[in-house]
User: What shape does this take?
Amino acid sequence: ARGADEYREALTDGLAVAQEVHALLRTREMAVADDAATVDTEKCVLCLTCLRVCPHGAVRIDVPNSAASISAVSCRRCGICAAECPAKAIVLPIFTDEQVDADAGGAADLVIFACENSALPAADTAVQQGLAYDARVRLVRVPCAGRVDPRTVLAALQAGAARVLVLGCHPESCQYLSGSTRARKRIGALQAMMTQAGLDASRVSFGGIAAPEPGRFAEFVHGTRAATPAGA
Assistant: This one.
């Protein structure tokens, strides 16, 4: 269920899910990738932040270790929990803080953290249509805009970026339900902190985009489209 969809669209989605379930039930075993988010029990303080923010119900309490635990089956690899964890006890193996920082590092006029479900395909199509961006734009692939936390944005600025843009799904149609909404709120809070510190808050922004919107992507890159108000 994704909000106020028309009946036909909701029925189509329901049938698609049922078909996937039937496919899984045909066999007694199911392959599970080992790239789910993991919890460092030494760092975890059991604040339950991950339990509250996970949109997929993948977090459980590991009572013997007094720490959170993430189901490899239920985890959708969005990285929202890793971005929200105040103790930095959660790691998404293929999108670690170190990897994302390294991808964003180096001087650039614009660093774009691009959701792989929306902004990244929009960027690819933009290039195919001749709306290419130049070498001064650094595109950083993330599983969801919700994976990008304020520390990551500040690290990109410190590395030399003149401007940082977080591009995710339109909040009302986020692949991971709440990822884009959380990213937008984080950027709004970061902008407020930058303003309070006397810094130019316009250097960071959030934008909503869908995969079939290459023109919108180009407008964000060239600054002809204003980003979504982060505090909205």
Q: What stands out?
A: The helical segments are 7-25, 49-53, 80-84, 97-104, 119-128, 150-158, 179-196, 214-222. The mean pLDDT is 91.
